[in-house]
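REVIEWER CHECKLIST
Item 1: Sequence provided? yes
Item 2: Single chain? yes
Item 3: Sequence as submitted:
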Amino acid sequence: MKTNEKYMNRCLELALLGAGSVSPNPMVGCVIVHNNCIVGEGYHEKYGEAHAEVNAIKSVENHELLKESTLYVSLEPCAHFGLTPPCSDLIIDKKIPFVVIGTIDSFAKVAGKGIEKMKKAGINVQVGILEKECRGINRRFFTFHEKKRPFIILKWAETSDGFIDFDRTANQFGQPVWITGEKSLLRVHQMRAVEDAILVGTNTALKDNPSLTVRHCEGRNPVRILIDNHLRLPQDLNLFDGTVKTIVFNSVKNLESGNNEFIRIDFTKNIIPQILKTLYQQNIQSLIVEGGKKTLESFIEANLWDEAYRFTGNKFFKSGIKAPVISGTIINTEETDYDKLTIYKNPVIPKLH
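Item 4: Structure as written out by the authors:
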């Protein structure tokens, strides 16, 4: 492996340590190399706190070495004052002569400005090392800033014969129908812990009474998103318990009540673009759609999805509600006990009209 790729791979490893803790910022890793030896490492650990470059520079014991070192970073150093000072200014101040960058930051306040600033200061800057991989780990961040919408993940569980539910009567409502096992449940909660929001429709909320929280692993709870056109759902559902921020899209009212926010949209028009526009305005970069068949198929038919997670359990219903049908590129499969997870990527770039 070439030298630049070797150190950039280490940046990527470090960056992923920030998963679930840095959004809406991107995950970033940084290493500092002196005479082919790593003398400093760092990553963006938590939103609002020091960036990767700051942590890496701080970890170098002898700062005199910085004047003879190369700084590797997976994403372009920032050039603006946000919650922290510009990293490009710190690099210039420390007189680091060489900087190798994975990919340009498409966030409007950066977007090449950090690179330009460092070049003007006489720093030798190289860009585009493992660019695909560096963009890949922050595909949520790039989708948000380039497509002006959240990164959308569809998720459901189906039986081996292709059903997501059996035909339930009202007296069978109140808890989910379990198709997969404990390890798949843990996998789902790990997904929730690293995404910004999770959405269900009215029927799923009524039938399953889900909490949509992270209970089986460490991490933050996603914002809960609910579609309830006429606000007909009972207020004693778990989704209204006030423990987690919950947004209810409806046609009746705009109202904030504790952690619950009701947002009125026009149900005579396509509601998905309206929902995605609102989530973008609220700085929500990623969304799991965990709703029932109708909700999932509305996103599929609109071609507004980026990845899909299909869990298949070793159960047979023989009849009931058929699972959604999706056409995508399989990018990974995982097996846990008797379950299988198939992950799809949308081969057509989704556009929000």
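Item 5: Key structural point noted by reviewer: The mean pLDDT is 92.
Item 6: Recommendation: ____
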